[in-house]
Amino acid sequence: MNKNGKNRILLELGVIAISFAALLLLLYFVMVVSFQNGEASIGVTMRLAQYLAGRIFEQPTEEQIRTTSWIIRYGAHLGLFFVVGFVTTFVSMVVFRRYYRILGVLGAGAVCYVLAYYTEYYKQFVEGRHFHQSDAALNWYGSVAGIFCMVGSYFLSRLLVKLS
Questions:
Q1: Which end of the chain is more exposed for a tag (fewer CB within 10 A), N or C?
Q2: Rounded to the nearest 10 degrees, what angle do helices 133-163 and 101-121 cross at?
Q3: What is the DSSP letter of 36?
Q4: Of the candidates 65, 70, 90, which has an alpha carbon nearest to the alpha carbon of residue 143?
Q5: Structural domain tally of the chain?
């Protein structure tokens, strides 16, 4: 094998290693955030909700602060798991090549589904936290959106390469 081939293999292995490291770091962050005790979790959300409601409304009512808190919480579920779905699919598409990419995408979907459900399931064992099926569904919807976005960007980039 020539030097160019070895450099390419080393580059691919480096990209795979960095992708896996980023994915593991992201999953660690998800676990840390998910398993905060209830008091710490609601405290952060309510402080942010009070600040944002104060920026939006002159004298925010309790109802406006609660609604802002609800939007932050649901947005956090969707946004965080969008990133999880996107990154997991990216890593699977880097690892699996050619026709095996579909297996990678399906595997990423399976990983995201398990993570979306079980991060919520295990919250019932954390002090002050509870299992909510709607939160698990939000996690899954965010993951699916991330998966579709990554797959769509892959096909769009392939199309643009062919057109140029």
A1: C
A2: 160
A3: S
A4: 90
A5: 1
CA dihedral for 152, 158, 159, 164, sign (positive or negative):
positive
Query: What does pTM read for this prediction?
Result: 0.83
Asked whether residue 61 is domain-assigned, the answer is no
Q: Tell whether 58 is covered by a domain.
A: no
Tokens of 38: 């209830």
| Sign of the torsion angle spanned by Cα atoms 27, 22, 93, 96 | negative
Q: Which two tokens stand for residue 114?
A: 């398990």
Per-residue pLDDT of 75-131, as tens digits, reads 989 999 999 999 999 989 888 888 888 999 999 999 999 999 998 888 888 888 888
CB-based contacts of 35: which residues, under 8 Å, 6+ apart?
Answer: 122, 123, 126, 129
Give a yes or no: residue 10 inside a domain: yes
Give domain status of residue 63, yes or no: no
Q: Which domain holds residue 94?
A: 3-39+79-163
Q: Which residues contact 56 (CB under 8 A, 6 or more apart)?
A: 64, 68
Q: What is the pLDDT of residue 102?
A: 92
Q: What's the pLDDT score for residue 69?
A: 92
